[in-house]
Amino acid sequence: MKTLQTVATFIDHLNEFLGRQVAWLALLMVLIQFAVVVMRYIFGIGSIAMQEAIVYMHGIMFLTASGYTLLHGGHVRVDIFYSRATPRTKAIIDIVGVLGLLMPVIAVIYYTSMPYVEASWKVLEGSTETSGIQAVFLLKSAIIAFCAVMTLQGLSMLIHALLVLAGEEQLVEEEHGGVM
Fold first, then answer.
1. pLDDT digits (tens, 9 = 90+) for 112-131
2. What is the Cα–Cα distance from 73 to 146, expressed in whole angstroms?
């Protein structure tokens, strides 16, 4: 059981790290958007690459920080039953949620998006604008990163829930959204 706990803790730390790092993209997006507005309305200069960079950062931030959001309970959960449940019942709800909802949805997203991402990589898809960012294939790869971080965090939630049921771990809700 200690090995499983180590794996779950590693996944939690990984998603914590990723979430904190990509959070800086929010500040960068604001600064670039401010620069775009100043350039356009004060100097009359436009930049398609800067505008596309904002879209890239937005997509990357939300997709790669999804595991962090799940770690901290930021995704949708029906609290009608969960908030009043015992730690054991919460663990069971988390197991059912991960196995019955999260993992199947992530599998569908992965299997339907993989051909889309592969096709983009085959042609090294770029912007339709000549002065745009010629790396759309990299942006589309963030969908696969989303599937990876969500799968890992789902696995961590599952491990934590199983450890709670086995009496090896206690529920820590304040710090994390799921069973920890």
1. 999 999 999 999 999 999 89
2. 16
Rounded to two decimals, what is the model's pTM? 0.86
| 3-state per-residue secondary structure call for 2-57 | HHHHHHHHHHHHHHHHHHHHHCHHHHHHHHHHHHHHHHHHHHCCCCHHHHHHHHHH
Q: What is the CA radius of gyration of the chain?
A: 20
Cα 81 → chain centroid: 25
- What is the helix (H) or strand (E) element at residue 164, kind and residue range? helix 136-165
Which phi and psi (to 5°) does residue 169 adopt? -150, 155
At 58, which helix (H) or strand (E)?
helix 48-64
